[in-house]
Amino acid sequence: HDPSLLHVKQIQYAAERMSVIIRQLNDFAGKNSLSLHRIDLNFTIRNYFNEIQSSLGDRIKWIEKLDPQLPPILANPMQIQKMISNLVQNAMDAIPNQGEITIETRVTQS
Asked: 68: which DSSP letter?
C-alpha cells in the first residue's frame, strides 16, 4: 500500500467529483444528456466513508466487505454517489441507538 498512490487516487477522485458537479450543472441547465463513466465502486465507497466518518460517531460501526476483484462499473458517478448516500442515510435513520452498517461489493454470475 504505497501512500503516494493513495494520494494520487484521492486527487483523481476529487477531480472526477468536480467534473461530475460540472456535468450535473450542465444537465440541470439542459446542456448534457446523462453521461456514463467507468467507476471504481470500492474506491467511491471508501471515499464516501471518509467524508461521513465523523457523523457516524461512536453509535454506528461501519463495516466494509469490498471485493478486491470487483471490476470498474459503467455508471453515472453522481447517481452512484447519491445512491450510496441515500442507502447509508436510510440505514443511519433506522438505527435508534447503536448498530452497524455493512456495505458489501462482490462479483456475481449473471
From this structure: T
* Cα 87 → chain centroid: 11
For the chain, what's the residue count? 110
How many Cα neighbours within 13 Å face the side chain of 11?
6
The answer to whether the pTM exceeds 0.85 is: no
Residue 77: which H helix or E strand, with range?
Answer: helix 77-94
Summarize pLDDT for 42-88 with one digit per residue, the tens: 999 998 888 888 888 888 898 999 999 999 999 888 788 888 888 88
Give the HSE-up count for residue 27: Cα atoms under 13 Å, Cβ half-sphere. Answer: 13
DSSP-assigned letter for residue 57: T
